[in-house]
Amino acid sequence: MEETQNKKDRVKRIFDSISYRYDFLNHFLSLGIDFYWRKKAIKFSGTNADSILLDIACGTGDFSIAANKAGIKNIYGADLSINMLHLFDKKVKWINGKTTQCVAEYLPFKDESFTNITVAFGVRNFYNIPQAFKSFNRILIPNGKVTVLEFRLPSSPIIRNLYLFYFNKVLPFIGKMISKDNEAYTYLPESVGEFDKNVDLVKLFKEAGFITVQKHSLTFGLVQVVIAGK
Fold it and tell me: Which of the four, 29, 86, 186, 194, has the lowest number of CB atoms within 10 Å?
């Protein structure tokens, strides 16, 4: 219980702290490829103009905004960091009144409220992933889908070594320099390595009651898109 609370508090503190530089660092450190990743994830998600989308760990709203540009109009956001949500509210007027501060493990929404859930680079920050996925299943309609966009460690030894050097050396240095937070950009590579080693998303989705699970790799295996169908 203490470990769970520690992770929750740590994640909240980090993202509240770096929120004001978060968008710039995301785009700068990914060389802008993050826009492509979101666009591809939305394409895989099977969403359309009739979708009711909940973007969990929505942060400052980049995934929601990409979904809106793709034609989805009924979008809601949820995040643990209130600072992130405030920035999201300032970026686009259409989300005002449709964001909720909460954790993924306990979602304050009625059963079968959404057709789709998206999580971009947020699942590794959950303190109890199995519980979160069960919450996802509860609030999705029958045949609803979850789309997870997340980092992974590439299988190619050459790309993997380059990736690890960038994540462990370059990214923390630039992140600390720009965000002024000494912990945030060491937490990122740590969390990706731990997540990749210990978490089987396909297994966890099926254990949470999802019927179908598909995986897609992007950009030499740097990121994965996982689609789980209820």
Answer: 194
Over residues 66-104, the pLDDT tens digits come to: 999 999 999 999 999 999 999 999 999 999 999 999 999
Query: What are phi and psi for residue 86, nearest 5 degrees?
Result: -60, -40
Q: Which residues contact 176 (CB under 8 A, 6 or more apart)?
A: 182, 184, 185, 186
Distance in angstroms (rounded) separating the CA atoms of residues 138 and 155: 34
Packing angle, helices 2-29 and 82-91, rounded to 10: 30
Considering the entire predicted model, what is its pTM? Answer: 0.92
Collapsed DSSP state (helix, strand, coil) of residue 156: coil
CA nearest to 70, candidates 152, 147, 143: 147
Domain count, the chain: 1
Question: If DSSP codes are grouped into helix, strand and coil, which group holds residue 185?
Answer: helix
What CATH number does residue 85 fall under? Answer: 3.40.50.150
67 falls within a domain: yes
CA 185 – CA 180 distance, rounded (Å): 10
- Domain that residue 125 falls in: 2-153+199-229
Rg (CA), the chain: 17
Residue 101 in any domain: the answer is yes
Please state whether beta strands 223-229 and 212-218 pair in parallel, antiparallel, or not at all (unpaired).
Answer: antiparallel
